[in-house]
């Protein structure tokens, strides 16, 4: 499987490829965000939280409100899955503060 082969890439292979990319560019918020989403969707919740926290650090430093909002939204989704409602609510609020239109759509999908 893989790009161009007509077959989907497995989540584990995608995680491996993203991890390899992160080794070379530790400050790429997009790679951490993609890997965090894959971790979340494969029930690796602590790894997902770690990646979203890294995105928050990078995005905050770069003043990138889109990645900041995405990271807080995704982190809130993980927190809601692991029954941390208070933390999820706080992170949804941070997402909304950083990018209202993006966060409102994600919150309505929970």
Describe this structure in words.
The mean pLDDT is 87. The protein has helices at residues 11-24, 29-41, 45-62, 65-81, 85-98, 100-108. The chain is mainly α. Helix 2 runs parallel beside helix 4.
Round the mean pLDDT to the nearest integer and report it: 87
Distance between the termini: 31 Å
State Rg. 14 Å
Biggest β-sheet strands, sense, barrel = none
- Beta strands, count: 0
Silhouette: globular
What share of residues is helical? over 70%
Please give the structural blueprint:
Layout: H1 11-24, H2 29-41, H3 45-62, H4 65-81, H5 85-98, H6 100-108
Helix pairs in contact: 1-2, 2-3, 2-4, 3-4, 4-5, 4-6, 5-6
Concise description?
With 110 residues, this protein is mainly α. Helix content is 77%, strand content 0%. Helix 2 packs parallel to helix 4 and helix 5 runs antiparallel to helix 6.
């Amino acid at each position: 499987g893989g790009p161009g082969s007509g077959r989907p890439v497995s989540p584990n292979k995608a995680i491996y490829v993203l991890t390899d990319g992160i080794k070379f560019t530790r400050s790429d918020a997009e790679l951490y965000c993609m890997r965090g989403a894959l971790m979340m969707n494969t029930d690796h919740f602590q790894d997902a939280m770690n990646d979203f926290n890294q995105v928050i650090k990078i995005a905050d430093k770069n003043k990138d409100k889109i990645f900041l909002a995405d990271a807080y939204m995704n982190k809130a989704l993980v927190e809601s899955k692991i029954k941390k409602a208070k933390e999820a609510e706080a992170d949804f609020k941070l997402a909304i503060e950083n990018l209202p239109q993006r966060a409102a759509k994600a919150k309505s999908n929970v």
